[in-house]
Amino acid sequence: MKSLKVNGFSRTRFRVGDRASQSPSLGNRFAAILLGLSIPFSGWICWREAQLWLLDQRVLSAAQQSKPWMLQRLRSQAEDCGRGCDPRYGALAAGAYAVLSQADEPQAQRDADRRAALSTAANLVRNDPRSGMAWAVLAYATSLQPERSGCACTELAQSYRYAPYLREQALWRISYGAAHWQELAESARNALLREALWYERLGKADKIAVTTALEGTAPYLTIALRAPGLGAETAPLPSETD
Asked: Which residues, at least 6 apart from 31, have a Cβ–Cβ distance to it below 8 Å?
């Protein structure tokens, strides 16, 4: 071996035939390629999550205070969701339009936002017809349409069919379904009761939320009697005893 002096340090030049010392192994090259590809992908994921969080915060803010600049900013971000946007982004966009449709703005603009909420939700279902979340969003958007007579019960039943439990949409499904109890199919009623029992066991605040949502409705007593400590937690639901 020959010795090289580089900046005062002695380096060793290996024989030309020693390939292992000349270049990285195939495995190392492959790992380097994967690392190079993963960096921009990870950056994109972080950016997307930040966009979702920002839209979620803007929906909440606009629901609490309808300032014109805030509504316009929310509408602009909701419009970024096209036909094939991320399902979570689409759900938030539909929710954004729903909030905008109830803001203190001209009637024509509110009507346009209601239609946009319905169109965005319909795209979610079209892109993934087996998504319970998409059907729940469509049920919500449908319930806002003034020309709609009756309950969005078909959409609600479909959401329960594909997703018996939904953390984010549970309270709305429970509240809306209970308010239209007589119009719900038996299977949807049973699904609603199960979700209400599940949701109220998530925590004290969640139990209070379920009680508030069901107050004054037909399923209120069914859920109340199955509260922990009353001895009826495991009792069959009414539809299971028929």
From this structure: none
